[in-house]
Design a protein that fits this description.
The protein is α+β, with helices and mostly antiparallel strands. The chain has helices spanning 3-11, 48-51, 106-116, 121-147; strands spanning 17-20, 35-39, 56-61, 69-75, 78-86, 94-101, 160-164.
C-alpha cells in the first residue's frame, strides 16, 4: 500500500474523499508527488475567514518531509495552508498547523490584484487559471516559510501567521 492509499484509508473515517486531479499542465517530474482535490469540512475555529468556503483547494503529499501532507485553500481571496505532520503523541498521531500570510505581505495581495483588475474579456476568461497558478505559487512560498521556522517552539518568519489546530 503506497502513502496515498494509506492516507486515504486514515482520512476516510473523517469524511474526507480524495480524488486524483487530472492536470494537462503538470510540470512536476516526481511521480511520488500527487496533487489531490479534497472535499471535507474546514477545521473549526473562531476566525470567520478560516471558516469560509474554499474557492479552490489543493491537496499534496510532501516530497521533502516523510509522512507530511498539505491542504491548500483559497478562502475569501487569501491562501491558507494546512500542514499535517506525523506525531507520536495524542490520539490522532498528527499535528495540524494553519499557515496564512500576514495581511500586508505580497502573497496576500496577489489575489486582490487579479480580482480588482477590470481587464479585457480575454483577461476575465483567464482569471481562474491565473488564480490557480497563483495559489500553487503561494502554497510553495507558505511551505518554505513554515519550514524555515520552528514548529515545536511555534516561531516562524514575520510574513506568516501560524496556528496549531490539532
Amino acid at each position: 500500500m503506497n502513502l496515498d492509499e494509506q492516507l486515504a484509508e486514515i482520512l476516510s473515517p473523517l469524511g474526507v474523499v480524495l480524488e486524483t486531479a487530472a492536470r494537462e499542465d503538470d510540470h512536476r517530474s516526481s511521480a511520488s508527488h500527487t496533487d489531490l482535490l479534497m472535499s471535507a469540512p474546514v477545521s473549526a475555529t473562531n476566525d470567520l475567514e478560516v471558516l469560509g468556503t474554499p474557492e479552490a483547494s489543493l491537496f499534496q503529499t510532501s516530497r521533502e518531509h516523510y509522512g507530511v501532507f498539505y491542504r491548500l485553500d483559497l478562502v475569501a481571496g487569501r491562501p491558507q495552508l494546512r500542514v499535517f505532520v506525523p506525531d507520536d503523541e495524542g490520539s490522532l498521531k498528527m499535528r495540524c498547523f494553519l499557515v496564512r500570510p500576514i495581511i500586508d505581505s505580497p502573497i496576500a495581495q496577489w489575489f486582490s490584484a487579479t480580482r480588482h483588475h477590470d481587464g479585457s474579456p480575454a483577461y476575465l476568461e483567464t482569471r481562474d487559471v491565473t488564480e490557480q497558478h497563483l495559489l500553487f505559487a503561494a502554497g510553495e512560498s507558505l511551505k518554505r516559510l513554515f519550514w524555515s521556522g520552528d514548529p515545536d517552539a511555534m516561531r516562524f518568519p514575520a510574513e506568516v501567521l501560524v496556528s496549531q489546530l490539532v
